[in-house]
Write a structure and sequence with these properties.
Shape: globular
Distance between the termini: 48 Å
Strand order of the largest sheet: 4-7-8-9-10
Radius of gyration: 24 Å
Structural class: alpha/beta
Length: 492
C-alpha cells in the first residue's frame, strides 16, 4: 500500500470499478471463515483468513455499498480484496496526529478497537440466551413479550432461530461438518421467514441515504462509525438480497433490536434496566453452585434508600451488583471528547454510588445473612455494553467527586475503591456463571495485583461443556426450532 493511501481514504473509491455482487460475495466468503463453532475466534481468523478481522470486512462492505456503480464490470477476486483490506488496515486517521500524549492516543485507539471488535466476539449463543430472557420477561411491572411483539410482529424466538441459523450454517466449520448442501438448505428455509427478514433488511439506496444523513457526508466518520450492518445485516437490491457478514445477524437481533425497541423511550429503557437486567443477573448468578445466599435490593432508612440491585454471597465473599442499561454512544467511535468525558462522569458516578452503599452496610444501616468485613466485600457496576473508557480516568474522577462530597480518602481507602469496586460488562459475567463458575477468583486476582486494577478484562477466557441448566434448555429450544424448519418448510 502506497504511503499516501495510509493518510486518506481515496483508495476506497476504486471499489466503484467492481460489481456489487462480487464484492458482497467476497465479503460473505471471508466472513464465513472467521466464525467457529462457538463464535468468532482468533484461531479461525488465523487459520482461514490470514488475520483479516471482522471490522476490516465490515469497513470493506460499507464502502463497497457506498461506492457502487451499476455499470461496473470488474469481478472482485482474492487479490483485489486483499489490496483493499491492507489499505483499510494501514489507514491512519488525521485525528490521531493531533494527540500530544502517547498514553491518551493508546487508550483511545484501544477504545475504538474494542468497540469495533468485542461486540461480535464471545459466545453468540450466550448473547442470544441473554436477549431471549430480556424479550420474553414478564412481571407485574412489564410484559416484554407483548412489548416486543407490538414492535417486531412476532415472538422473539423466531428472531433467535433466524440468527442462529444464519450465524452457524453459513460458517465454514459448520459447512465442513454438515455439508454445504445441507447448510444451504437450512439457511434457505430460515430466509423464508418474511417478517423477521423484513425487519433485518435494508435496501441498498436506503443504506447509502441513511449513512449520508447520519454522518453528513464525512467519509472519516463512515470509517470509524457504527456500521448499518449491525442494524440491518441483509442488503437488498432489485436483483438479490446479500448477507455480507452473516455473523452480524446475531448483533442485529440482540443489542440492535434492544436499541431499536427503546429508542426515544427512556421510560421503557429505565424499566428494562431496573426490572429485566436485574432479574436476569439474579437468576443466572443465583444458579451457580458456590452461591450460598442471594437477594435482590434491600430497602433501608425507612425506605429512603436501596441497596445495590443484586446481592450475592459466594465462596465466603460478598458481591454487591448494580445493574445499568448503559450502552456506548455512537459518537465514541468518532472520538468526540465531550461524549468521552460524559461517559467518564457516568461511570465514576457508579463507582461513587457503590462505595456509598458499602459504607452504609459497614455502618450497620442494613444487614445481610451474616456479617462481612470490608476485606470480604466486592462491588460491581454491571453495564449492558462497555464503552471501554480508560479506567484510570474513571477512578480519578470518582476520587475527585468523593473529595468534593467531603469523604476522607487516604491512600488505603483509595486502594480499596480502586481494587474492589469494578466495572464489568454483562457478557464477562455470563462467560463464567453460565458455565457454573464463580467470578470471585478473578475479582480476587485483580484486587491482589495493583498493575491489574485498571484492566478491562477479568481473567482469561476458557472453554467448558458444563453449562447451566437454564442455558442448556434454551440451546435445546434453538435446535428444536431448526428441526421444525426441516419438518415444516413453508413460506412465512
Amino acid at each position: 500500500m502506497k504511503e499516501e493511501q495510509k493518510k486518506n481514504l481515496t483508495f476506497l473509491e476504486e471499489l466503484r470499478e467492481y460489481t456489487l455482487d462480487s464484492k458482497m460475495l467476497c465479503a460473505q466468503m471471508f466472513s464465513s471463515r472467521i466464525v467457529g463453532v462457538d463464535g468468532i475466534s482468533i484461531e479461525s481468523i488465523t487459520k482461514y483468513t490470514d488475520m483479516i478481522t471482522p471490522s476490516e470486512i465490515e469497513v470493506f462492505t460499507l464502502f463497497s455499498i457506498l461506492y457502487d456503480d451499476e455499470s461496473a464490470n470488474k469481478i472482485m477476486n482474492h487479490k483485489a480484496f486483499s489490496k483493499f483490506i491492507i489499505g483499510i488496515r494501514n489507514y491512519w486517521s488525521p485525528k490521531f496526529c493531533s494527540y500530544t500524549s502517547k498514553q491518551s492516543l493508546a487508550t483511545d485507539l484501544f477504545m475504538i478497537m474494542a468497540l469495533q471488535q468485542f461486540s461480535v466476539q464471545g459466545s453468540f449463543l450466550f448473547k442470544l440466551f441473554r436477549y431471549n430472557y430480556f424479550f420474553t420477561y414478564i412481571s407485574d411491572k412489564i410484559n416484554m413479550t407483548k412489548v416486543f411483539k407490538e414492535k417486531f410482529e412476532v415472538k422473539y424466538k423466531e428472531y433467535a432461530i433466524f440468527a442462529y441459523v444464519l450465524y452457524a450454517f453459513t460458517s465454514l466449520e459448520f459447512q465442513n461438518r454438515n455439508g454445504i448442501k445441507f447448510c444451504a438448505k437450512i439457511v434457505e428455509l430460515a430466509l423464508q421467514n418474511k417478517v423477521v427478514r423484513g425487519h433485518l433488511t435494508i435496501k441498498k439506496d436506503d443504506y447509502v441515504k441513511e449513512l449520508s444523513e447520519f454522518y453528513r457526508g464525512e467519509v472519516e466518520d463512515y470509517f470509524y462509525g457504527i456500521k448499518l450492518q449491525y442494524l440491518y445485516p441483509l442488503i437488498e437490491t432489485s436483483k438479490a438480497i446479500y448477507i455480507p457478514s452473516p455473523y452480524l445477524v446475531v448483533n442485529a437481533v440482540t443489542e440492535s433490536l434492544f436499541n431499536r425497541l427503546t429508542e426515544g423511550n427512556n421510560v421503557l429503557r429505565s424499566t428494562i434496566g431496573k426490572e429485566v437486567i436485574e432479574s436476569y443477573l439474579f437468576d443466572i448468578y443465583g444458579a451457580v453452585t458456590s452461591v450460598s445466599w442471594k437477594s435482590k435490593e434491600i430497602s433501608y432508612n425507612d425506605g429512603h434508600r436501596l441497596s445495590p440491585d443484586v446481592l450475592i454471597s459466594d465462596s465466603g465473599y460478598f458481591i454487591f451488583f448494580d445493574t445499568k442499561s448503559k450502552t456506548p454512544s455512537l459518537k465514541l467511535r468518532q472520538l468526540d471528547k465531550r461524549v468521552i468525558d460524559k461517559d467518564i462522569d457516568i461511570y465514576s458516578d457508579n463507582i461513587v454510588q457503590l462505595y456509598q452503599r458499602i459504607l452504609d452496610y459497614l455502618n450497620g444501616d442494613f444487614t445481610l445473612e451474616r456479617y462481612y468485613s470490608k476485606d470480604e466485600i466486592f462491588a460491581v457496576s454491571v453495564v449492558l455494553e462497555d464503552s471501554y473508557i480508560d479506567r484510570s480516568q474513571i477512578y480519578t474522577r470518582a476520587f475527585e467527586k468523593l473529595k468534593n462530597m467531603e469523604y476522607s480518602l487516604d491512600d488505603k481507602e483509595k486502594e480499596f475503591i480502586h481494587s474492589r469496586i469494578k466495572i464489568m460488562p454483562l457478557r464477562q459475567i455470563e462467560d463464567y456463571v453460565l458455565r457454573n463458575h464463580s467470578i470471585i477468583p478473578i475479582l480476587r486476582k485483580q484486587a491482589e495485583n495493583p498493575n491489574m486494577w485498571d484492566d478491562y478484562q477479568f481473567g482469561e477466557e476458557f472453554n467448558s461443556e458444563k453449562f447451566s441448566d437454564i442455558f442448556n434448555n434454551f440451546h435445546s429450544s434453538l435446535l428444536d426450532g431448526v428441526g421444525e424448519l426441516l419438518k415444516n418448510p413453508k413460506n412465512q
